[in-house]
Amino acid sequence: MELEDVGDQLVGAFQNPGILIGIPLALLGAVFMSFGAQYQHRGVTKVERLSGGHSSQGLAPSHLLKLLARPSWVIGTVMLGLAIVCQLSALFFAPLIVVQPLGAVALVITTLLNAQISGHRPTKRSLIAIAACVGGIFIFVTVAALFATEKPVSNGQLITILVLLLVVTLVFAGLWIWLRKRMGALFYIIAAGVIYGFVATLAKVVIERVKVSEFNWLTFLCLAALIIGAIVGAYFVQSAYASGPPDLVVAGLTVIDPIVAIIIGLTVLQEAAGAPLWVYITFAVVGAVAVWGVFQLARHHPQVLSESQGLPISRGSSGGAADAAHPRTGSVKVTEAVAKVWPEPPVKDRLDDPDKH
Questions:
Q1: Residue 24: is its pLDDT beyond 60?
Q2: pTM for this model (two decimals)
């Protein structure tokens, strides 16, 4: 009898074979997200450096316009657009709480890319933090893939999601206005992650309503909220790129975003209704571990420590003249902390760098 009960509970991957299509699509989206984040970060930091802006206060409107003239930022935006297409396609086939956490793969790829490009190799503490982020998320996906089921979203549930999104957006907007000069990368990362969690949920709702041809005023309101939320979240993401390394930004987004979507999926959409108690306990524990990893990465990331003069790490590999250009990035081998006070001398961009001075 007990074995039959377990068999009845493990319905996710067996009742919905679309999960087997959604997971690969979500992983492909994570790859696009990794490269897109790296290119966007390059474009944002170059605009900030050339404009002499203050990244901790967020990007100014003039900076946003200048980003459109940076080829690296445009390329990164296209890649992130492809990542969104892959994610939406994955949501078409699989439940929200299965697809959304798979973005954690982007953290591993982005960490390797950033270490290769910036010369800031991950430390033991940062690797432990990354392992906590990715490990926590993947344990969650394994459990969610077995127990997650999809149910039609009622009008009451959708209204609840929209009200919560409005409250969250107003709270973050108020904090940004009140404490703008004291905000760091972590605030922008958390704000973007929370808002994008709602955006992913709304995207799933719209997809499900399109499937059944349910086009009413609430569906269009949901679509409008999705677009506005995506724009607000995008601003916070660009501001995070201006004040933190790309793998830290991706770490926050790929952990906070799915956790918010998961909470909505569990509490509002009831996507794991009927699952045993230990499943919810597992979700809580691994979620807490993943969030802990984000905060630890923010504290111990080698590039963050280098920029705050906590570590004497130079950009690029060690050795050689201090003013030699890095063979991969074309940037001067000085710490970012020094570069903010003493600008880098002009150097010739490498051939594969899409940006030009």
A1: yes
A2: 0.68
